[in-house]
Design goal:
The protein contains five helices and five strands, in the order αβββαββααα. The protein is of the alpha+beta class and 111 residues long.
Length: 111
Amino acid sequence: MTEKSEAAVAGKQTSGRPVVKLSRPLETHQGPINELTLREPVFGDYLRHGEIHKAERTKDGGLALSVDREALIGWAATLTGLDAISLEALPMRDVNALSEVLIPMVTAEGN
């Protein structure tokens, strides 16, 4: 984790729900917000958004994992309750902090 993202996620939970503190307010339809609170994912979310990682064969026959960006925005919107258009305005440093919290929640990493 980067120093910035450590500060953003270290020990931050509201009612057992992970919270990502944003580097600057995010403008939403409900007004500006300073943090993202994620709910626990459920099986229906997985059915809608699928795997967050894509596996691709490399030239040497190995496997390379990458993040499926469409799945990432879908998971983020579902678990935060915000629309994708609002989330698309996040600065990349906040996307990175959000990803560090969200990805383990929806993969075997978090179990």
